[in-house]
Design a protein that fits this description.
This protein has about 260 residues and is mainly beta. The chain is built from 1 helix and 16 strands. The longest helix has 21 residues.
């Protein structure tokens, strides 16, 4: 009976080996299989991308600052210039624009506008002072207008979100009576102020990020070194800070997180 088993066993081995070989043809899984593409942009000097958004077309827009005068940011400049670049959904550069004067200029956040253009916020460093500003561009990044966002000569716009109705919320910090306070401002499509609020205590307070909640309120995150005012508690050094405000900018609550040192 043993010789009669040789053919079935050989057939099973053939089928099994064939299946194994078929599996092996698909292995190994290519490295970085989930990676679609990797691109770099800039020139031979310092180049920073600080914020990126995806447009309805599938393209991307990133904002930052650059000192380069060649490559993707050719031109002449003094110090850092704010930098805005559009790339397609394959990572190919569509256009690149810079903005600035005889000082250091930084872009921290960008948003698409209903007219097909873009709104850019950040700050400029001139005469050893920071000034928060906004720049409106057309669809190709050409500047339409530029506005200061606050009268303070020590302020930075660090985050921005569109509300979907042509208005925008901008967050950062501004100096009030010599102290830096968390700052949030709502503007219309022309850059006009709708409301302006500050939060914090008698020490250093910054907002670095903002989100809109489903009920129309907003949550701001940042850090604080105060222990009075909107952060009425005793703690040490800088701590994480989060504030929730209503649609008109009124404080709903303020929380902080800290670790005893």
């Amino acid at each position: 009976m043993r010789p009669k088993l040789l053919f079935p066993l050989a057939l099973i081995c053939f089928v099994s080996c064939k299946k194994n070989n078929d599996v092996k043809k698909q292995d190994p899984i290519p490295n970085n299989k989930a990676l679609s593409w990797v691109k770099s942009f800039g020139g031979t000097d310092y180049d920073f991308a600080n914020s990126v958004i995806q447009l309805q077309s599938g393209d991307y827009l990133f904002a930052g600052n650059t000192r380069s005068t060649n490559g993707d940011v050719a031109g002449t400049r003094w110090g850092y210039d704010a930098w805005l670049t559009k790339v397609d959904n394959s990572g190919n550069k569509v256009w690149s624009q810079t903005y600035g004067d005889q000082d250091d200029d930084y872009a921290t956040s960008a948003a698409a506008t209903p007219d097909g253009g873009f709104l850019l916020v950040g700050y400029t460093f001139v005469n050893n002072l920071n000034r928060a500003w906004a720049i409106k561009t057309d669809a190709y990044g050409a500047k339409s207008w530029q506005k200061d966002l606050v009268t303070s000569t020590d302020a930075k716009a660090l985050s921005m979100i569109p509300n979907g109705d042509g208005t925008y919320l901008i967050a950062g910090y501004t100096s009030t009576s010599g102290n830096r306070d968390g700052w949030v401002k709502k503007i219309d499509a022309a850059g006009n102020q709708l409301w302006n609020k500050t939060f914090g205590g008698s020490s250093e307070d910054w907002f670095t990020s903002i989100v809109k909640n489903s009920d129309g309120s907003y949550t701001l995150a940042g850090y604080t070194n105060s222990r009075d005012g909107d952060i009425a508690s005793t703690k040490g050094s800088f701590d994480g800070w989060i504030v929730r405000i209503d649609a008109s900018g009124n404080k709903l609550w303020s929380k902080f997180w800290w670790k005893r040192r």
